[in-house]
Amino acid sequence: MTTAAVDEIKLGDFMNKMVADLGAAASSVLVIIGQQLGLYKALADSGPLSAEELASKTGTSARYILEWASSQAASGYIEYDPITLKFHMTPEQAAAFGDEESPFYMGGGFYSIASMFKDEPKITEAFQTGKGVSWGSHDSCLFCGVAKFFKATYKAHLIHEWIPALDGVQEKLEQGAKIADVGCGYGHSTLLMAETYPNSQFFGYDFHQPSIDQAKKLAKEKNLTNVTFSTAKAKDFPGESYDLVTFFDCLHDMGDPTGAAKYVHSKLAPDGTWMIAEPFAHDKLEENLNPVGRVYFSFSATVCTPSSLSQEVGLALGAQAGEKKLSEVISSGGFTRIRRATETPFNIILEARR
User: Fold this and answer.
1) How many angstroms from the chain centroid is the CA of residue 167?
2) Is 108-353 a CATH 3.40.50.300 domain?
3) pTM
4) pLDDT tens figures, 219-260
5) How far apart (Å, rounded) are the C-alpha atoms in residues 74 and 31?
6) First to last CA, the chain
7) What is the Cα Rg of the chain in Å?
């Protein structure tokens, strides 16, 4: 094997990148620990604290907390004052890590990353066999992580941006409409809409029974009477004449998204709308080789594509399908009017009508 000459400056830059990536990966478990033990919340709520003070507030060991906080400060996730010897969080850091109800909360993604490592043997085998790995066979960290991550996204955008971007839908919801939220997971999207539009009736469906159980629990805690959760697939959910059907970040996970599109078409009212939220992606691979694409391609390889391949047809759109490919799937279901209603750095929102 012939080895090309190495440019030492380029090699140095590449090694610096690798060190940064190793640090990010190594700190991921500490982010989860920080969430589990309430360390971020304590810092966000209390202001500057020494390691000993943070340990006292959270009932933890000061020696461990010093190492944890030092790692987090080195990551830029919290701040350290060398004069007072105390740690604190900026408002921006607190929004991302200190408050699970924040629309900017990022902590959930780290739980999902934990599941990727736990499921590595299954995924490695799938790479060798070409077979799928079903959603329900993943480590449970995936389900809570996905729910936490997308809950923040929905809180930030769903009510104030996405629904108003749809043609006439907000008015229908305010007056009273019938909505199916398919692939609802823990039901955060369904519950958010049900709270905002009390005159409408919402039906959340997911094929993963543990997720539906959690959704029912959350609905009961919120004492909502206009929402119902049931176990069902995208091609067999019950009900007719829905004014709105929503698919949040799930169409690409399905084995037969074309079949799902046809089924949704048959379940809509004549003037109904299908709203599809999918991971943001351009149509060309080279246009997605960026930080957001990096995250989505990684999850696509370990979660989304294996999930699709475990089901019937196994189209395996992947989490970076892009608007063109998604529109082809949607139009194959009989929809003739498809448009990009809006977008965020993480999502594209498509509106489909008959």
Assistant:
1) 25
2) no
3) 0.92
4) 999 999 999 999 999 999 999 999 999 999 999 999 999 999
5) 13
6) 59
7) 22
Q: Which fold has domain 8-98?
A: Arc Repressor Mutant, subunit A (1.10.10)
What 3-state class would DSSP assign to 139?
Answer: coil
Token pair, residue 283, equals: 């149509």
Q: How far apart are CA 334 and CA 216, in angstroms?
A: 33
**Residue 286, class by beta-carbon neighbours within 10 Å (0-12 exposed, 13-18 middle, 19+ buried)?**
exposed
Say what the pLDDT of residue 301 is. Answer: 97
SS3 351: strand
Q: What angle do CA 182, 275, 341 make, to 5 degrees?
A: 155
CA distances from 320 to 56, 59, 150 (A): 45, 43, 17
- The C-alpha atoms of residue 76 and residue 311 are separated, in whole angstroms, by 41
Query: What pLDDT is recorded for position 353?
Result: 97
Q: Where are the beta strands (DSSP E) in the chain?
A: 79-81, 86-88, 178-182, 201-206, 227-231, 242-248, 268-279, 337-343, 347-353
Mean pLDDT of the chain: 96
**255 exposure class (CB count in 10 Å sphere: 0-12, 13-18, 19+):** buried
Provide mean pLDDT across the span 105-116.
Answer: 92
DSSP letters for 188-248: HHHHHHHHH-TTSEEEEEES-HHHHHHHHHHHHHHT-SSEEEEE--TTT---S-EEEEEEE
| Sheet of strand 242-248: strand arrangement | 227-231, 201-206, 178-182, 242-248, 268-279, 347-353, 337-343
Query: DSSP string covering 43-76, please?
Result: HHHH-SB-HHHHHHHHT--HHHHHHHHHHHHHHT
Domain ranges of the chain: 8-98, 108-353
* Region for 197 from its dihedrals, namely left if φ exceeds 0, alpha if ψ lies in -120 to 50, beta otherwise: beta
Task: Quickly tell me which residue has 């990966």 as its tokens.
Answer: 25
